[in-house]
Amino acid sequence: MEDPLQGIEKILQDKPFGSIHRFVLHQAWLGKTYSEMAQASGYGNDYIKEVGSQLWQDLSATLGKRVTKKNLHIVLRKYLQKGIVKQERTLEQEFCKKSSLEKVFPDLLSVSNIDFPSGPLPLDSPLYIARPPLEELVCNEIFHPGCLIRIKAPGKMGKSSLLNRMIAHAKEQGYQIVYLDFREADEDVFASLDKFLRWFCAYVSKQLNLFPSLDDFWDMEMGSKVSCKIYFEAYLLQYIDSSPVVLALNELHRVFEHSNIAQDFLPMLRFWHEQAKQDQTWQKLRLVVVHTTEVYVPLKLNQSPFNVGITVTLPPFTLKQVQDLALCYGLDWADEEGEKRLAPLQVMVGGHPYLVNLALYYLFQGEMTLEVLLQTASTPGGIYSQHLRELLALLQEEPELISAMQQVIATNVTVELDAIAAYKLESMGLVQLNGNQACASCELYRLYFSQQMGL
Questions:
Q1: Class of domain 134-313 as given by CATH
Q2: Hey, CA dihedral for 237, 240, 244, 245, is it positive or negative?
Q3: How far is 273 from 205, CA to CA, in rounded Å?
Q4: Strand 431-434 relative to strand 437-440: parallel, antiparallel, unpaired?
Q5: Which of 5, 126, 205, 392 is 20 to 30 A from 307 via CA?
Q6: How far is CA 184 from the centre of its chain?
């Protein structure tokens, strides 16, 4: 079975295609950024970009479709589906036959193979849209001994997709990974601080392939936090090899909901980070915390882990990024006048990555026009109906959130909300906050909840 890169090299046989071109193409196929390519190859970032730009121009000319680093996979899928055959050269004719393409690109399936938007994007997904400089920032910061990285954004904004790429980068450097999602914890785990920290230590031990020896290090007279610290310091960080350990704590906001846990656990994380400044053992630990809202548990300024380390807040997509994603979906019309045509979608969903992806998925499937999609967006027959019903059901579980959302959509200016209600609405992606001042995060939510609440 012929390698994909060999197949592309045949297409570009009359174009410059040396080892650096092969390297850039291979790395782009794997979803690497130009900065990562430059770091891995030793070449300058500008030179790598120049090589890549020329590659995409040559492929665009050969395939008859605009090819970019982001849409490489998608264009070839569409190319295979439609069987577009260019007649300039005999070799190209042979290569573009479906049977030949299947041999050269065994992983390329029909366009219907694009999955419905749901959950984190796979590492090799051509639909991942980078939001510079966030990716480079977190991938570089993880190399700092004892670092603490906080990734914050409302739900479905791409936190887990970014986290998974950072983890993959750390694995490539030989780092050990402990990934803990607090949604996995049973509710009774949060019954007491002691029970929570014992569960926490046991979970980390298992992921490091170490036997949980809690009773050998736990001393109730010293307290749970000190016992937990000693367990990490004298056991977990001692018995692993010298490679750093990335402790990635996803969905940390679930801990916020249990003030009896959060008031001790969060300051403990800060203390561990500060220990690394003078203790080499703790320098092995790299902390990454991911959550949807600001912590709404009262903490003293010098106890909060969120005013140390670095904070990465994921912004919504810009109009240009929405256009880039549309091109990744193979929507050719998004090329020349894309920003103008996509601007109403940007207004409707506020650049929210999940909502943008959902719209482009349906447009890619050819099930409706953009105009019809926008006209029906907030209605029961629209593409967002299930998503909107789920949000409404969550609001109805907590009457104070219904009241808070009513205040937000009743006016076109920002309103001050109770802190906890504001943070919960933000975690659902329904509002944008400036302190406790809130406004609807997009026109879609304003329209839908106005209709549901009779405003």
A1: alpha beta
A2: negative
A3: 19
A4: antiparallel
A5: 205
A6: 19
